[in-house]
């Protein structure tokens, strides 16, 4: 049995980035860039007015004949004389031999003649070509997270496709003879299966879309067969249940017989002790305890960072914050505890009913409280580590 | 011209929740529940063993004949005598007249006879019927956010569909003769259009999927026609550009001629002063300044909370945190500033180049710094309000 930190290190050592894929910028939100991008152009691509006003050549003159109009998008290739000006609007092209724009509020106009009432300094209100970025300058380093602002910036440089780390294809395998699909009649002794739909939503939450769920009875041959398929067709396999030591727990045996290398089995923690992590070729496998609250805790603490590594992230763990605990906690178990909690700006409280079979506490929790195995007592108002959820 | 807080109040008063829709629990992540849900069943639905071991009737006896095996999912309707026990596994049905389960580690077994070496207390290791939740008990209040844990809990109660607030259908209308679609050749005087794809990704980021983008030239008739369609077919219309006072800015006129009620126009802020907010029937309209950084700031500060109200959220604004500013700031503009910044655990710095036309600063920022119009000077190391992004 290993400690939580060891388990996390083993995961970090054994997960790797997914292959690089070219995708449309429009579909790239939340991906990690797998290439360094340089600008294909100057931005702005021409000298641009930043005001509605008049463009002219700065000199001793204060009065000009207005000879043309340039709205945004327009272009003018014509000699403008020293005593002439061009009516111009924000974003418009500034003709090559003009150097200054006066804002319209600082002019008076009569009969196609504009008089400047407040003279701007030379070069005022003109954005230079390449002022934002020049051709071949760095746009984004490799490993940048694609945000809406990044998408906007790439798009304004005319970039339509980028290389990113692909997202993994994930199989969810749910074991258990007791499980009945929701919507059907529930025979005595059975319960509704909820882990596949819950894990599916967890995966959606980290932006993964290629997800397939499989159900299998507690039977070695059937388990081996499904896992064989999943190990060859998916990047990540999440198995729910069948990983304890009961007579009907076949998952570990079926994983090993399929050639999965065991990287760890069992963590000194509560909930979620019987957690298995392994690897076959590039496919990683988590076998999660079947109790819903254990499954979910295991997802947030172990599966989530593994998926983040796959997707190319550098910050792979859910962020931790510190809060004062609202009542004393005793931990005589010698295990690391992940407690369902509720935090606000100042404090965190441990919610009642921490059973690993129960999801109702989880559904009202907004955080997990992390208590290391080697701290037996925490006094009220001492700071603890809190992992906010959602 | 109004202040930021007034604008936010007007938005809050004029936006309302979307109609209620029934959706599959499997597709409900991130929706807000529009009904109060009571449990259709007891959970667990029967008395359940929480251990692998032996079920028996607690008495003075220490030794039992093992007469049956019950794995999870099994059921047994048979009288078990006082001197008999049933081999049982975690999650399995506990036969009606038995009351206690002893964990297998506290037994020795020989020839179908089990001897208890450490007697558990009566009722030990048996989860009661309805221990987690009883039939008709409250599952979730109306207005609960659907998280993965909530999805798991609903699913384990056999609930497959729930009523939630729908998400709005959003139209993006981009105006500007200077705009060319990325991928095409860029004529002189033109720039690539980036706001539609950027706004689209912002909407994706809040979970909105029904999005359509329209492009229109700077021309009153064409603008009126597109807006007429959008106002009748969408819940939210986001117009980009054409909302200043230039001779080619037709958006406001086209909105008013289409019967849109003006709720505000222009906010005392930088960037994003010429922001228009209006309403026609139940459709809300934001006309955003066309400069990319203004568009994006306006989205985060004004459009985001409006969409959150539509979707039924109570916490509608992006969370604010406090950080010490890493250098003094002077604000003599009399306007509220939203500055692109970068924050860490302790401090926040103002990034260089805050131009509203430039997205590159935004792309490396991780926060907006909020400086109210009525504070002219902020000393280094004073706390400021920071709005983390992403």
UniProtKB/TrEMBL annotation, chains A, B:
Pfam families: MoCF_biosynth (PF00994), MoeA_C (PF03454), MoeA_N (PF03453)
Swiss-Prot/TrEMBL cofactor(s): Mg(2+)
Catalytic activity entry: adenylyl-molybdopterin + molybdate = Mo-molybdopterin + AMP + H(+)
SUPFAM superfamilies, A to Z: MoeA C-terminal domain-like, MoeA N-terminal region -like, Molybdenum cofactor biosynthesis proteins
PROSITE patterns assigned to the protein according to its UniProt record, in alphabetical order: MOCF_BIOSYNTHESIS_2
The protein's Enzyme Commission number: 2.10.1.1
Domain MoaB/Mog stretches: 171-309
Pathway stated in the Swiss-Prot or TrEMBL entry: Cofactor biosynthesis; molybdopterin biosynthesis
GO biological process entries: Mo-molybdopterin cofactor biosynthetic process
Gene Ontology cellular component terms for the protein in this record: cytosol
Enzyme class: transferase
Keywords (A to Z) from UniProt: Magnesium, Metal-binding, Molybdenum, Molybdenum cofactor biosynthesis, Transferase
Single GO molecular function: molybdopterin molybdotransferase activity
NCBIfam families, sorted: Glp_gephyrin, molyb_syn
Function, in words: Catalyzes the insertion of molybdate into adenylated molybdopterin with the concomitant release of AMP.
Family to which this protein belongs: Belongs to the MoeA family.
Protein name per UniProt: Molybdopterin molybdenumtransferase
Lineage, uppermost ranks: Bacteria, Pseudomonadati, Bacteroidota, Flavobacteriia, Flavobacteriales
């Amino acid at each position: 049995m290993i400690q939580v930190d060891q388990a996390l290190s083993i995961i970090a050592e054994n997960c790797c980035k997914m292959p690089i894929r070219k995708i449309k910028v429009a579909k790239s939100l939340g991906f990690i860039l797998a290439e360094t991008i340089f600008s294909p152009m100057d931005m702005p691509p021409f000298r641009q007015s930043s005001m509605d006003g008049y463009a002219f050549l700065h000199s001793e003159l204060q009065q000009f004949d207005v000879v043309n109009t340039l709205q945004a998008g327009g272009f003018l290739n014509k000699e403008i004389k020293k005593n002439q000006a061009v009516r111009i609007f924000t974003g418009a092209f500034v003709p090559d031999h003009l150097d200054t724009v006066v804002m319209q509020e600082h002019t008076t106009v009569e009969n196609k003649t504009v008089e400047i009432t407040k003279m701007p300094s030379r070069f005022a209100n003109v954005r230079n070509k390449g002022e934002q970025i020049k051709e071949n300058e760095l746009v984004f380093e490799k490993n940048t997270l694609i945000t809406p602002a990044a998408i906007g910036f790439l798009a304004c440089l005319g970039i339509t496709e980028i290389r990113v780390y692909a997202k993994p294809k994930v199989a969810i395998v749910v074991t258990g003879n007791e499980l009945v699909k929701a919507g059907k009649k529930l025979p005595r002794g059975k319960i509704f299966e909820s882990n596949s739909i819950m894990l599916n939503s967890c995966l959606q939450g980290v932006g993964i879309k290629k997800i397939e769920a499989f159900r299998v009875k507690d039977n070695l041959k059937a388990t081996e067969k499904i896992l064989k398929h999943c190990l060859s067709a998916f990047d990540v396999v999440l198995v729910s249940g069948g990983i304890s030591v009961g007579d009907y727990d076949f998952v570990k045996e079926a994983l090993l017989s399929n050639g999965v290398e065991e990287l760890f089995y069992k963590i000194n923690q509560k909930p979620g002790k019987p957690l298995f992590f392994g690897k076959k070729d590039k496919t990683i496998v988590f076998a999660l305890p079947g109790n819903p609250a254990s499954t979910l805790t295991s997802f947030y603490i172990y599966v989530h960072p593994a998926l983040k590594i796959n997707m190319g992230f550098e910050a792979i763990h859910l962020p931790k914050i510190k809060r004062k605990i609202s009542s004393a906690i005793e931990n005589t178990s010698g295990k690391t505890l992940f407690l369902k909690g509720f935090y606000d700006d100042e404090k965190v409280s441990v919610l009642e009913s921490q059973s690993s079979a129960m999801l109702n506490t989880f559904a009202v929790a907004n955080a997990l409280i992390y208590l290391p195995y080697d701290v037996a007592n925490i006094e009220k108002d001492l700071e603890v580590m809190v992992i906010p959820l959602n």
